[in-house]
Amino acid sequence: MSIQPYLIFDGRAEEAAAFYEKAVGAQIQMLMRYKDSPLPQPEEMLPPGWSAKVMHMALKIGDTIVLGSDGDGEETGFKGFSLSYSAKTQEEAERVFAALAEGGETKMRLTRTFFSPAFGMLTDRFGVPWMVVLPQ
Asked: Cα separation of 135 and 63, whole Å?
């Protein structure tokens, strides 16, 4: 059994996928648009012009698959969780933290803590909360 995060990007999924490719080395494993679905969505379920939006995508980040979509046009937001990125080196932690923070908001700068030589928290430009940690 596995649990995978599924993120709704409120119409910005393709932009998010490109951002995560650069920021954390994500690999797009799959991306399907609403218009390419084998079972079309009822017209009343999506806003006008939404057919080219992402119905479903899978991003591989390290050993984890993060799923996502553009959603259905209703604003969602991200609250009550964070994605945690475990870096292998101090340099990787610094690079990833800076990349994810670009255009976002730093909640706690990357710093030494009692449990990690480098730990920081931020919200990226899509509103996704992240923790970057270098395990001891």
From this structure: 16
pLDDT of residue 2: 86
Interacting residues of 15 by C-beta distance below 8 A, sequence separation 6+: 9, 126
Measured in whole angstroms, how far is the alpha carbon of residue 113 from the centre of its chain? Answer: 25
Sheet hosting strand 105-111, strand order edge to edge: 83-86, 129-134, 118-123, 105-111
In this prediction, residues 33-62 reach a mean pLDDT of: 90
| CB-count burial class (<10 Å; 0-12, 13-18, 19+) for 15 | middle
Query: DSSP letter string over 41-72?
Result: PPGGGS-TTGGGSEEEEEEEETTEEEEEE-TT
Q: Is the pTM of this model over 0.70?
A: yes
Instruction: Give the pLDDT of residue 73.
Output: 85
